[in-house]
Phosphatidylglycerol lysyltransferase C-terminal domain-containing protein
Amino acid sequence: MDIHFKEIELEDKPVFDHYFSLRHYENSEFTFTNMFIWRHAFNLRFSIIDGCLCTIGRFGKDFYFFFPPLDGEGSNVDSAIHKLIQYFKKQGYPIVMKGVTDITRRIIDEAVPGLFRFERDPNNDDYVYRTQDLIHLRGKKYHQKRNHINKFLRSYQYTYEPVDDSNIEECIQAELEWMKRKDPVPGLEYEKVAVLEALRNFDALKLKGGALRIDGKIQAFSLGELLNPEMAVIHIEKANTQYHGCYAMINQQFAEHCWKDVPYINREEDMGIPGLRQAKRSYHPVKMVEKYTGYLVEE
């Protein structure tokens, strides 16, 4: 039978939310927000195959991939995987399964033992922090972070405010203004699209947000949501680097105002970018959500 993969639309949020809620997933990919705001960058499509949520994508011109099929009530993972493989082979695509975690790897191995081999994909590992660490920044290891924040407090008069209908347009304009200053690099346009999608669909995506106002203007904002009952995920964090310590301040303030009752915060991956890796490590994650890429053993 032919499988039809449809584009991801806002109306599909209940479908994705249902599948993501069935297990205790900790990887940042498994939120509807991430699937929705990055759908253009990664050409994401989905289909329900044998009761499994199956999402496929393409990065660039010819890097095709699929995420692990997510099981549901009465689903058949074995059959769904074989149909995905058949679909990819029919299209002439290589068989590449991205975003595999320990949970989904176990599901795959139980459903189709010995069919896939898995290679570590550390560039896509998610960084997970204790929320209280990000709020209080205690101890010698956070000394530099406290210095950045103290300098910020000495230098600027600021107010923190939740992101809502009253300031979303200001956040959009701030993002557009900051993007103009950046040197064009591959992927920057996709990032801008993702940020604007999140802001323009803020209520429909059920996001939470926080912003810093300095000199009467929004100079930083952050957007996130609950990933599971014990973990929030930060999708977007943007700041005007002309204000020293702005990133450190929005990080700390958003954690304190929005997530203080949630034990952990997932701040997503570093994508192998050295500067981003250094920044994420400097906040001392308590664990990493390790990722793998799956390939057919026969290939």
